[in-house]
């Protein structure tokens, strides 16, 4: 009797555990792991930029090229990857992307100059698209009714990866460990993760669909139509503007603290860590909040507050004040990517691979932003160049629609 009572209490307790706190299945955990390692590498690179620039003797322009050009080239390749990813070839693309990604990371680790790093990054971006973006699409297919929640989980795991990467760089800088060794470690870890994925079973709408050149041509026409569809285009455009205050700002953040605020490599890496840690806290709070508050309403308010905080950040030259305002920014823009990307998936039901293609096509334009900032920084200085990022929250405040979701 006591054993039965204890069992019933256990079952009752499990029922009240929020969905966002429950452990993921093996498949979901594996898919989320691809985002963790991808963002881990991203966090390592963005925090290590001052050291990378010194080791490879890179200018602002070349940094901008590495941050921007691979995205443009990858955008073209990923359109095809996304469309083919809606067929039974998805798993092969994911596994192949993992192999190429691991090799590209190792090539980055042994780069002898900025141009070699650029070549490795051009290879890395589409490989990441095949492995990570198609894993994201597969995660969305596990529960089509909870796109915002699953995107929030995805972003939270990615934030954790960025946090770990930036903290590792901060510690490595203090101990004199090279960024090259850390890149190599992530490259080998990517091979291991790819092996695990190769043993997983993927079921999604279209998993039995055969790939033919004729179907690809038809799907390409569909991508073009979706790009001009207001229902889809609104979200992909807003997503590109949101990226200015996310990846583009983060790409130049460590350099900004070294060149403008005037601190050392360890302090710059710590600043990026603050951004990442606070952002992860925001992503964690976002998941249960979405059960109570409209994601778009939250996004509008946070965009307005971000414009105010970013203005203060750009006007200060004191390290600790800049660090505090950076933490505020990292908290406020938590959820921007997950909410907007979820809207794209919702606008294109049952075609998660095609979402990748549409996002990649729009992303080719957005990928020019880092190059533009690099050119501006080389001309007028990094501080003046970063002021253009203020357009990001302004456009979000203006462009996010009001009304019920079914009205948009």
Furnish the topology, listing elements before pairings.
Blueprint: H1 2-15, H2 26-56, H3 60-84, H4 90-109, H5 114-142, H6 147-175, H7 179-197, H8 213-227, H9 230-261, H10 265-289, H11 295-315, H12 319-332, H13 336-347, H14 352-366, H15 368-380, H16 382-386, H17 391-399
What's the short story on this structure?
This protein is mainly alpha-helical. It has one domain: MFS general substrate transporter like domains (Growth Hormone, Chain: A), CATH 1.20.1250. The chain is built from 17 helices and no strands.
Helical fraction: over 70%
Radius of gyration: 21 Å
Low-confidence regions: 1-21, 404-408
Oligomer: single chain
The main β sheet shows up as: none
Choose one word for the global shape: globular
Number of domains: 1
Tally the helices: what do you get?
Answer: 17
SSE ordering: HHHHHHHHHHHHHHHHH
Explain what the structure shows.
It is built from 17 helices and no strands. The chain is mostly helical and 408 residues long. It has a single domain, classed as MFS general substrate transporter like domains (Growth Hormone, Chain: A, Up-down Bundle).
């Amino acid at each position: 009797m006591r054993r039965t009572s204890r069992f019933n209490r256990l079952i009752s307790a499990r029922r009240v555990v929020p969905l966002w706190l429950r452990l993921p299945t093996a498949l979901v955990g594996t898919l989320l792991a691809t985002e963790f390692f991808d963002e881990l590498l991203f966090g390592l690179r963005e925090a290590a930029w001052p050291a990378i620039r010194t080791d490879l003797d890179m200018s602002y322009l070349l940094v901008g090229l590495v941050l921007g050009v691979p995205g443009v080239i990858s955008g073209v390749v990923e359109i095809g990857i996304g469309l083919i990813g809606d067929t039974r070839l998805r798993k092969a693309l994911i596994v192949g992307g993992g192999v190429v990604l691991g090799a590209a990371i190792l090539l980055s680790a042994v780069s002898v100059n900025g141009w070699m790093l650029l070549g490795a990054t051009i290879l890395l971006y589409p490989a990441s698209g095949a492995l990570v973006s198609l894993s994201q699409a597969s995660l969305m297919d596990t529960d089509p009714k909870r796109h915002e929640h699953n995107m929030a989980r995805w972003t939270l795991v990615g934030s954790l990866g960025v946090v770990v990467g930036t903290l590792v760089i901060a510690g490595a800088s203090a101990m004199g460990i090279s960024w090259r060794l850390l890149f190599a470690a992530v490259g080998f870890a990517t091979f291991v993760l790819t092996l695990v994925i190769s043993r997983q079973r993927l079921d999604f709408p279209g998993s039995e669909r055969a790939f033919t050149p004729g179907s690809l041509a038809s799907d390409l026409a569909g991508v073009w139509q979706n790009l001009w569809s207001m229902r889809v285009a609104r979200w992909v455009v807003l997503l590109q503007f949101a990226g200015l205050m996310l990846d583009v700002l983060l790409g130049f953040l460590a350099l900004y603290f070294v060149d403008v605020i005037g601190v050392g490599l360890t302090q710059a890496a710590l600043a990026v860590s603050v951004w990442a840690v606070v952002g992860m806290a925001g992503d964690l709070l976002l998941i249960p909040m979405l059960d109570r508050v409209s994601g778009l309403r939250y996004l509008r308010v946070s965009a307005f507050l971000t414009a105010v905080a970013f203005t203060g950040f750009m006007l200060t030259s004191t390290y600790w004040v800049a660090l505090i305002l950076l933490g505020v920014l990292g908290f406020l823009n938590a959820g921007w990517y997950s909410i907007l990307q979820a809207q794209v998936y919702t606008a294109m039901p049952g075609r998660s691979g095609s979402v990748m293609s549409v996002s990649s096509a729009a992303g080719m334009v957005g990928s020019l932003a880092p190059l533009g900032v690099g050119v501006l920084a080389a001309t007028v200085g990094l501080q003046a160049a970063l002021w253009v990022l203020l357009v990001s929250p302004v456009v979000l405040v203006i462009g996010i629609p009001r009304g019920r979701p079914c009205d948009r």
